[in-house]
Amino acid sequence: MTGTFKPLCKRPTIRIPFESEKHASIAKQVIEVDRELQPQAVLRELSVENDILIATFKTLTVRLSRLTVNAFLENVDLVIRTLAEFGEDAEKGTAA
């Protein structure tokens, strides 16, 4: 594929609520570090609105859209579980 990115399918948008704006921002920062495996075929945009993490994807195929969203949700699940386990202690500086 050459030239500009031309998505062929709809743009799925996912809105994930967090306990606070700080947690949503942490999730965004953590997930942003990982680039898409196929950057020529997937465009991911992340933003935070209050306590909501918003992810919008543009992909070349519906199948790729499904795979991308599934992988993203697995990452979000890991971030949420990590925040639940260590978030409070990390903020206090008393992580065990």
UniProtKB/TrEMBL annotation:
**Record GO biological process:** tRNA processing; tRNA threonylcarbamoyladenosine metabolic process
Q: Which UniProt keywords apply?
A: Cytoplasm, Nucleus, tRNA processing
Please give the InterPro entries that the UniProt record associates with this protein.
CTAG/Pcc1
Mention any Pfam family matching this sequence: Pcc1
Task: From the Swiss-Prot or TrEMBL record, state where the protein is found.
Answer: Cytoplasm; Nucleus
- Looking at the keywords, is Glycoprotein present? no
* First-listed, main subcellular location of the protein, grouped into a coarse class: cytoplasm
- GO CC annotation: cytoplasm; EKC/KEOPS complex; nucleus
**Which protein family is it in?**
Belongs to the CTAG/PCC1 family.
- What's the name of the protein? Transcription factor Pcc1
Species of provenance: Rhodofomes roseus
Q: What is the lineage of its organism?
A: Eukaryota, Fungi, Dikarya, Basidiomycota, Agaricomycotina
